[in-house]
Amino acid sequence: MIDDGSLVSIRNLRFYRGERAIFDGIDIDIPRGKVTAIMGPSGTGKTTLLKLIGGQLRPTSGTIHVDGEQVDRLGIRDLYRLRMRMGMLFQSGALLTDIPVFENVAYPIREHTGLPESLIRKLVLLKLEAVGLRGARDLMPHELSGGMARRVALARAIALDPMMIMYDEPFTGQDPISMGVLVKLIRALNDASRLTSIVVSHDVREAAQIADYIYIISNGKVIEHGAPDAMMNSASEWTAQFMNGLADGPVPFHYPAPGLEQDLLGVA
Amino acid sequence: MLEQLVRLGRIGIGSLEQLGRGHLLLLHMLAGISALFTRPRLLVNQLYSVGVLSILIIAISGTFVGMVLGLQGYYILSQFGAEQTLGVMVAASLVRELGPVVTALLFAGRAGSALTAEIGLMKATEQLSGLEMMAVNPVKRILTPRFLAGFIAMPMLAAMFSALGVMGGYFVGVGLLGVDDGAFWSQMQAKIDLYDDVLNGVIKSLVFGFVCTWIALFQGYNAVPTSEGVSRATTRTVVHSSFAVLGLDFILTALMFGE
Fold it and tell me: ipTM > 0.85?
């Protein structure tokens, strides 16, 4: 059932919020050592998917395996043990705002290891060096730009040398330079540290640039999946509309509404 | 009619759900207290922000409340020629009632609202989720030290309020209105009982500290993670804490001082 080459294996996942199905029976395999992009329009539950993989939410039905462990069945202690091998980069960075950059990156190391202070210092500086912000170690989070905050959060996410990193919309709201830096960093970190990366994004160009494999989800289903080139040249009208950013297509430009004439003139 | 019943039922179920979530959070916070012994620094930091930073408002309010008690007490007692008992009246009012109650109300307004806003914003900016994904339990690491700090700080703040209130009453009664210095203190010493008055006041402030901090932390943790949600949660903290303090004060007073 579970593909040995996959670090994350999702089978027949259903997740409901009230009556609304966010996921309605999806299957996803995240291959080890690769960058996999999960793409789809806003509001399709991409962030929810990351929370399900991280065990912050429990599926309504179906299974999620991470490195052979069924996440939704784990007790809190085992879940925390598994999370120590996962990193997550939140859209906002989620840095602790009352401590400086250095302490933010040192936080997980201090929490989970009994390393001496001198070694923690070296580790933190190395992680900050990897994201190019060694010089910003004494800044407070509110003194950082959005791009810098995400890079610090990335340094914190890799602080414990995890086996995988989940990126939640890493490119949203970034200027072209920050975007370029993040694209380069995600790919470089994945290759240098032999990580497995899951990038949730709707920035087609950037995600396609670094991904080895792409899943497109919409309306609770996996619409299509494959290598970036195959997705760019997909015969599916829906995929072509999404990948090429077309305003109208299978996803209509207009939100469902009564006829314009009826609305404006009150004609029954 | 049926629709109103359905709405009433929905409100009832919603309230019970909140109550259940609040108690679960309390259990998790209590379970996390033992972990604080290995990291006392977390508690000390919170004692500073919850307790020390509240001292100014407590000290000023306590002094003025004591001064007003001195004035009002003098005018009433002097009508019966009993102004020498002013010290007893000021001290009993403060230690039994005003010290714990007004301190709790001020605490809810200053420290409680700050706690709710802080936790609510941490939720809105994904800091609590971030901690969870770092395999750090946010209830143990963030909420429990704040809870314990509120519980410890409240009786100390109430004691400070009462002490400064007595000094305020002394200043007005003895210093300005001419009540006898010796009578003020000796009457107080003779009539104020350590157990009946002081200890009961301390018990009240411990209960208020427990409830106010619990409400503040629950409202922050349960806040809708938007600016409007945090704002509503902060308001609820002050309103719910005030009701809880005044209601519990009546119950505790009836139990402690009833015949």
Answer: no
